Amino acid sequence: MHPGELATRLKSGLLSFPVTHFDQDLAFDETRYREHLAWQSGFGVAGLFAAGGTGEGFSLTSPEIDRVVRAAVDEVAGAVPVLAPATGGTATAAAQAAAAQEAGADGVLLLPPYLTEAGQAGLIEHVSAVCAATDLGVIVYSRANAVFTDESVAVLADRNPNLIGLKDGVGDIELMTRIYARVGDRLIYVGGLPTAETFALPLLQLGVSTYSSALYNFLPEFALGFFESVRAQDRTEVYRKLNDFVIPYLDIRDRTRGYAVSIVKAGLNAVGRDGGRVRPPLTDLAPAETDELAALIAKVS
Question: Looking at the predicted structure, is the pLDDT value of residue 68 above 90?
């Protein structure tokens, strides 16, 4: 898919970040993963991000990422654009971006370089090297040790024609205002904070037209309905849904670091779709928390 076409498609709707399924030995379970993608792709999302944060891409080796991406591309068969991750240091991320193109992915999500702290000049070179490694459209994830200033985003947008978007994992209103004021619609803007529904309505005013929904994994109809309420700027309905489900869900999620991923697999288990376990260093929800989540899901299902 041409980068411009991909950008148009992605900003038009909700984005799915599916979990990655593991077997009892915590090896990639391709059969269950494919079953999940077949279900996920049937509700009309605008894009599917394989092996992203919710997909525990941080725990996958490069060969595993390649296998996950190839399975996703094959399973959805063009019904939904598939974006692959690029992770780690510059050489690794560039190699993964090239591999994503070879695997038939439609785009790349560039995650922060693992652990390393770097200045803006170094981050610009990192992103530019990854963009140069592929013809695919690239979205850069601004968070953690790779938060980009408005000046850096402008340089990157000018230097790299296939850079199509910025995913915001910071939630800094002034920074997003500065970025949009400087770069405008040259890029698409994706909400990428944990449980992005919480921030979706206010960020819409800053040009963030879509977001990554982890809830879509196990409550696709609720997630799509919430997205429609946000896009319609129906404050009453958004806050009703926040109070009915999202905020109580956050209360469970916030009890342990890493639960932002674990709770999604627990949600799948609660709706009978077998999300399975998370890989270390993450931990699964405690049994009482799983029961609490199941009761909450039942209220909106």
Answer: yes
pLDDT single digits (tens) 83-104: 999 999 999 999 999 999 999 9
Residue 19 DSSP one-character state: -
CA 140 to CA 147: how far, in whole Å? Answer: 10
Residue 195: its pLDDT value, please? 94
CB proximity list for 158: less than 8 A, separation 6 or greater? none
Tell me, what amino acid is at 223? A
Tell me the two tokens of residue 169.
């994992």
46 DSSP 8-state letter: S
Candidates 122, 103, 120, 112; CA nearest to 50 is: 103
pLDDT for residue 31 is more than 90:
yes
Q: Torsions phi, psi of 16, nearest 5?
A: -100, 130
In three-state secondary structure terms, 13 is coil
**CA distances from residue 12 to 5, 15, 108, 166, 182 in whole angstroms, order as listed:** 11, 9, 18, 15, 22
* Catalytic residue IDs: 141, 167
Helix (H) / strand (E) element for 34: namely helix 30-40
CA distance 105 to 288: 39
